[in-house]
Amino acid sequence: MSNFYEERATMIAAGDLQEFVPFGRDHCKHHPNALNLQLRQLQPASELWSSDGAAGLVGSLQEVTIHEKQKESWQLRKGVSEIGEEVDYDEELYMAGNMVIWSKGSKSQALAVYKAFTVDSPVQQALWCDFIISQDKSDKDYSSDEVERCICILQSSCINMHSIEGKDYIASLPFQVANVWPTKYGLLFERSSSSCEVPPGPPREPLPTLFSMLHPLDEITPLVCKSGSLFGSSRVQYVVDHAMKIVFLHTDPSIVMTYDTVQGLHSVWALRRVKTEEGNVVLKFSEQGGTPQNVATSSSLTAHLRSLSKGDSPVASPFQNYSSIHSQSRSTSSPSLHSRSPSISNMAALSRAHSPALGVYSFSGVQRFNLSSHNQSPKRHSFSHSPSSNSNGSFLAPETEPIVPELCIDHLWTETITRLRKKNSQASKVFITSDLCGQKFLCYLVESELQLRCVKFQESNDKTQLIFGSVTNIQAKDAAPVEKIDTMLVLESSGNLVLYTGVVRVGKVFIPGLPAPSLTMSNTMPRPSTPLDGVTTANPLSKLLGSLDEVLVSPVPELRDSSKLHDSLYTEDCTFQQLGTYIHSIRDPVRNRVTLELSNGSMVRITIPEIATSELVQTCLQAIKFILPKEIAVQMLVKWYSVHSAPGGPSDHSEWNLFVTCLMNMMGYNTDRLAWTRNFDFEGSLSPVIAPKKARPSETGSDDDWEYLLNSDYHQNVESHLLNRSLCLSPLEVSQMKDEDFSQNLSLDSSTLLFTHIPAIFFVLHLVYEELKLNTLMGEGVRSLVELLVQLARDLKLEPYIDHYYRDYPTLVRTTGQVCAIDQGQTGSMQYPPFFTPEPPSVYQWVSSCLKGEGVPPYPYLPGICERGRLVVLSIALYILGDESSLSDESSQYLSRISIAPPKPQAEQEESRFSFRHSASVSSLGERLVVWMTNVGFTLRDLETLPFGIALPIRDAIYHCREQPASDWPEAVCLLIGRQDLSKQACEGNLPKGKSVLSSDVPSGTETEEEDDGMNDMNQEVMSLIWSEDLRVQDVRRLLQSAHPVRVNVVQYPELSDHEFIEEKENRLLQLCQRTMALPVGRGMFTLFSYHPVPTEPLPIPKLNLTGRAPPRNTTVDLNSGNIDVPPNMTSWASFHNGVAAGLKIAPASQIDSAWIVYNKPKHAELANEYAGFLMALGLNGHLTKLATLNIHDYLTKGHEMTSIGLLLGVAAAKLGTMDMSVTRLLSIHIPALLPPTSTELDVPHNVQVAAVVGIGLVYQGTAHRHTAEVLLAEIGRPPGPEMEYCTDRESYSLAAGLALGMVCLGHGSNLIGMSDLNVPEQLYQYMVGGHRRFQAGMHREKHKSPSYQIKEGDTINVDVTCPGATLALAMIYLKTNNRPIADWLRAPDTMYLLDFVKPEFLLLRTLARCLILWDDILPNSKWVDSNVPQIIRENSISLSEIELPCSEDLNLETLSQAHVYIIAGACLSLGFRFAGSENLSAFNCLHKFAKDFMTYLSAPNASVTGPYNLETCLSVVLLSLAMVMAGSGNLKVLQLCRFLHMKTGGEMNYGFHLAHHMALGLLFLGGGRYSLSTSNSSIAALLCALYPHFPAHSTDNRALSGMSKPKKN
């Protein structure tokens, strides 16, 4: 039995045994095929599922399956993924009856139906085929061409092709097809030689047997063959030999294997496209040789193939109408025969561009090929020998074009003739396999001789042809390739399953768990007991296999003596008892899975284990395989594989230990006696029976446990730690004694397989070690590898290497260790390869020398294995050394290829793979590096796993490329440099313009209305890139459009009269109009700088539509009907803002001149307000400087109030901070305080004065101009009077003066030079808190002598008027100065008494001002926000959610709660300023929380204490702050808040709140997402003016500066 144990040792355990049933078989039963459908049409639905067996659907199914069982077949292939990622699952194509079912696996499940097809007649064959869609037919490299992946279904008369994209083609077949084969170029048809066909007589040329079709819309063309003749000249001819049958066809390499039934020989041919000259030779054959044998002329063949009478249907047999056709097309006497013969040859020119439907019948081939089987008529015979025989070329010329052949086969190899050859030795199965070292074999199974013949072949050096070598015969009953691990499975005649690599035997395959005797089998998995002979290929052997001597099964050695059947050892180890279940055949190999067909008809699918699962072992094996001679490499791999895949093989983590042991044994080590390998644990390899026994612990423990701890890696690491020496801990000398026993006499066995190659193996493993150091994820692997390398380095006495490892891993590498002596005599037999260097190559050292600029030797590199090392070396050479030639093929200066003279083509192929294709737009080194790296396949993920220092130059290059990318880089490059937006843009850019995600598809009727919502000029491409996932931009457009009537939804209650109902509707419309009028401000921000005007066209200003539509009848509701009171001038400011919004669309870079500005002046007086806004916007854009002084004068003299306001603000904004004299004069005229005391009093409207004051602030911004500051300081507290003047809207004037003063002294703080006598801060403080009015100094004393006739103020300051302006002036003067004393002035009062003196809304301004001064103290969290609230308020303010109120007499709860919310709102607003445009996440979260809080307060039961108006104000302020922080980001959460508040109308929601909400929306999408806010001093001043937190109550409320200014962009 020794033989038995030896066999057991090299046994390979197959994993993952599953019963296999073709998926399609099950699906077929439920598929509504043609038979069922007919039944359905005949019966009413109620009877369909009747229990009547024969009539019901179920019954019909039973009938169908009985007929179809014999005809089922299927094939499997590796899954093809759409995207090109690596997938590992099966696809199955199953055919039975009229159905074809294509099922696919996926990562999550085994198989699911992908497509199912039902055709009209029984399916003869179904296959996958890829058609090339290319324009030129030359035999170039087709890698670049598009491929159309199809399924082809062959029926008796036609072939259907269905592409994955969903195109369907049908081509009728002009002859009976025996077989279809998919090729690299298209389909190959084998014509069936029907038995009725008579062998042609001498005059008749034989017809071709092989045809090709390159695309579903192309013609079917005959195949030509080129075979060398005896005299060396090759001749080209059609393939006409009926004896030649195709047995195999492969796409890469593109070869065909045929079998000659007469000679009984197999031949191999190369399949390629026809060269033009070969095609011409075939077509012109007749002109050269006139003998009847070669009359395969263009015309006669074409005539054969094309002539057919009209009456023949494409499906009919080609012979039924023979006589008429024959007489018609062959008689020379009938000159008009072409008029009657409906040849369709003109249609042959139909190109692929035409639709598939056109092509269906145009090639219906029966009309092309008449394959008649009768002898040629005698007339024809005489004709071809007549003197005019050359006319037969031109005889059919006008009508028929010749059919040009497309594909050609070249003869490559024919097997040698043996005498004992049987007639029927046709190969039943052919496949190509490669061995573990990459040598390829063509294997074919000759079943009649139970032989598998393997022919070795390889490519020639110039890659043009294949060279075939020797033939090896292996005894086999069946075989299949295992492609994933380069091996093949062979079923021996004894029933054993054996694994071979190439022709080297690896070992038997042990299949655990194949069901035992067939009795239990039939119980566990009931299957139909009919044998599936008919299903497999027609198998003449299946009948012979019943005899007992072949019933032996896999894990058993051959037993010739049947008396041993009951031998105990045998039965114990045998998986299936001898009751007739044996492996009958192998089929459907995919990757490393195959199906075994058992003799009882069932099938099981098994998985052959991989060579190695861990990346480390795979890499080491690759490297060793690369360096060893092929024969030794195969032996080494076979040995490793049989150890690794033995039954009960290792688990993942012990695979490395197993590998080391195996490798060192092969080198001659005795691993059992080597200390560090002796302790290896192979937990996985313990047999499951022994493991539990061994693992049971003893109760008490033993000394071995202590020993185990001391020997553990952890203990050794701690012992060798540097701390140990400093703490003087003495090492525990326990296990050392044992080691020394061993270390006496260790030596290497020099007779082993790898002994002579130890230096070479050591060196490549060192290179693998350097390679793995470049991957931060492989740290564990590097440490494992070091131990092996150190041992080898010690034994080879390579001190520099040991030192190198010690420096890398001081704790792992001990200074002393066991050395295995190598006899001096043996050292000579070790081969030190030429590339071995005494100094260890180190990639870090190489890079470091490079950076220092020292000369460096080329770095050794293993092609295909050390790719990272190569990449790093070349990228450093290119980027740091600046050597542009480093990427060319001549990179030998930096890299030395290690090779044992590999075949040259491989080397070339490696180089070409990395050769750099010069792209037109690549200029700098960084760009070259990045483009080259993506060509090599380097990704961001690889970059992240490179060590940081090594990756730095690459990251630097990426950083530079990111800033200035080229427009034509492919997507991979854009991904690498982190500019996915560009690749996305490239994809988007290819779309037609209207197809952008954002453009709403409006039906044509509404397009005219769509035109003028003022947002059509937005850059859709940019916005669709920024927000590609959803339609938020469309939502914003919907919210901000004001050109369409609003919906007025009012329910008419029964008690309402019609008149009241109309009034109700108009009142509702009035509320909605408050919102509509607020929209332009937001729209102006949204469309900021999005339009470049055309000089010949006026700027389109969208309409402000204040009408409504009332459902359900869509009647118009209008405010001008006179039913309700509408405030006068309600729309004047709204129109003004509408004009500003339109003007802000103009981009700063636009070409605008004075004439265009004047040209825009409207003809109608009612549009004057919009024009005024337009002028202001031009100023904000900086365009108003171009307006001529004459025109300015002209506008101002008209005396239109709005125009003056817009013009003054615009001119001032355009001259921001310039102290321009002419503009100062212009503004001074409108400010009485700046005029000389004796000047004429001009009647300037109040609002124009306000605008002029703000204008002065803008022109003198940041200049600290003394005179201006003095005047403005006085103007803040200007008393009412004289007489009737200056009585209304004083608040706005005072505020304007305060803001202007703040702008003039912006950020100067206490450094106001030359103004100390003005006491600016003290004066402002007084304005803020009140007190006695100081005596007015200066020129205007006499003006104020006569008191006001309307307002009696006395001599105290009216704080309600002056406080806001003074507070903001202080804030702007001390902006960001962190001046504590001033800030403390602004602290909220902390006693109830003082609180009563301050209006709660002023606390908002004070808090805001204080925070802006203490700029650096602002923190983005709610704790900081709450810290601004004084203690008294914090303790006593009611929490807004409580119901009962705390009672206290001294405290005014209303005051406290109002003060609380306003202080919080002020702090939030300051947060918004501090983090404006930063998208700071913590600031966003904090503000969002407060916004949510205010929303809940509003609906709380005691909101009335605080007052809904105050809460709405605070909510609006917080929302504005949120929008400032997230400006331009389009954040969804903020958008949701804005959208919610947009829908709230009526109640407390007045014009000002709508204004705030839509300003927030505009800020959020500032400039369509292309702009954000800045926090420069100037920007904060502008934002303060624009977002002044006291909102106008209605659209004519001028006490607040309603939207006078716009935020600047950053």
Structure description:
- The chain is of the alpha+beta class and 1610 residues long.
- Helix content is 39%, strand content 13%.
- It has 63 helices and 36 strands.
- The strands form nine sheets. A six-stranded mixed beta sheet has the order 16-15-20-19-18-17, with helices on one face. A five-stranded mixed beta sheet has the order 1-28-27-26-25. It has a four-stranded antiparallel beta sheet with strand order 2-31-30-29, with no helix packed on it.
- Strand 9 (158-163) and strand 10 (168-172) form a beta hairpin.
- It starts with a helix and ends in a 24-residue tail after the last helix.
User: Biggest sheet: strands side by side, in what order?
Assistant: 16-15-20-19-18-17
The value of Rg in angstroms is 47 Å
Strand content: 5-15%
Fraction in helix:
25-40%
First-to-last CA distance:
90 Å
Number of helices: 63
State the total count of DSSP E strands: 36
Question: Which structural class is indicated by helix and strand composition?
Answer: alpha+beta
Spans of at least 5 consecutive residues with low confidence: 1-9, 38-70, 139-143, 286-300, 306-399, 515-579, 683-697, 733-744, 901-922, 990-1010, 1601-1610
The coarse overall form would be: elongated
Q: Major beta sheet, specifics? A: 6 strands, mixed
Mean pLDDT: 76
Considering the chains and any ligands shown, give keywords for the structure.
1610 residues; alpha+beta; 6-stranded mixed sheet; 5-stranded mixed sheet; 63 helices; 36 strands; elongated; disordered N terminus; disordered C terminus
